[in-house]
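User: tokens in, sequence out, please.
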């Protein structure tokens, strides 16, 4: 059974599918809609103050992102990521980002570098106040910006499709750290390692930038494995909320 039913604020009447999608997406990633939660169109449309159409479309999009799965006689269910899928997800991300960093290194401007450094500075400030949720958001904003700078249109779409899974995994990794000192130890080095990524981009050498990106993602994957965190299983139907 899922935990207490999350509160929803009525959405503006102008809301379309993307607004509903953003609302549900955020609640899944922050744990308000945990694995096993049933997404019922009628209930969601009432709580969000919209018609069932945008809710139905948003749920289908969440299915495409891998955050929701449809089960016979149960409907749409929020799912987690199986342990044996975590490694491949990060492997794919490493390949995508290596290509993106390599291409971005050929055309990155001083203004782009300044923007990326500003994101890292924001991570450092978040570290100092132990705001690890902000670090997760800033980390993915950094990587998303480099993917955008690469100019790969289709690659960017593929990267965005796994971004939700990566973000969810990182937040669960955060939750698995039980004390502030453990969280700080787990997030400080990865946050500061973004400086190496900027150095790779600034070098103007695609191979150097690609190698830095590949190492960065592989290190993230290794940290998850070492943490030994057990992800919720996609096939676990016993957690469906009634």
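Assistant: Sequence out:
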């Amino acid at each position: 059974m899922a935990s207490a039913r999350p509160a929803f604020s009525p959405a503006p009447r102008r809301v379309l599918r993307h607004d509903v999608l953003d609302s549900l997406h955020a609640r899944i990633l922050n744990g308000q809609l945990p694995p096993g939660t049933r997404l019922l169109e009628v209930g969601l449309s009432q709580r969000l103050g919209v018609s069932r159409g945008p809710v139905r479309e948003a749920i289908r999009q969440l299915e495409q992102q891998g955050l929701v799965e449809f089960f016979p006689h149960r409907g749409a269910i929020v799912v987690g990521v199986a342990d044996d899928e975590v490694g491949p997800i990060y492997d794919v991300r490493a390949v995508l980002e290596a290509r993106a960093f390599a291409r971005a290194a050929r055309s990155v401007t001083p203004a782009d570098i300044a923007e990326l450094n500003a994101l890292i500075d924001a991570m450092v400030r978040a570290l100092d106040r132990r705001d690890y949720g902000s670090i997760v958001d800033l980390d993915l904003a950094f990587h998303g910006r480099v993917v955008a700078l690469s100019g790969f249109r289709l690659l960017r779409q593929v990267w965005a499709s796994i971004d939700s899974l990566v973000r969810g995994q990182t937040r669960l990794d955060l939750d698995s750290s039980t004390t502030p000192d453990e969280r700080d130890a787990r997030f400080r080095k990865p946050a500061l390692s973004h400086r190496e990524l900027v150095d790779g981009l600034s070098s103007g050498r695609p191979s150097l930038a690609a190698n830095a990106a590949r190492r960065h993602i592989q290190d993230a994957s290794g940290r998850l494995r070492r943490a030994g965190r057990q992800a919720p299983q996609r096939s676990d139907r016993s957690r469906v909320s009634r």
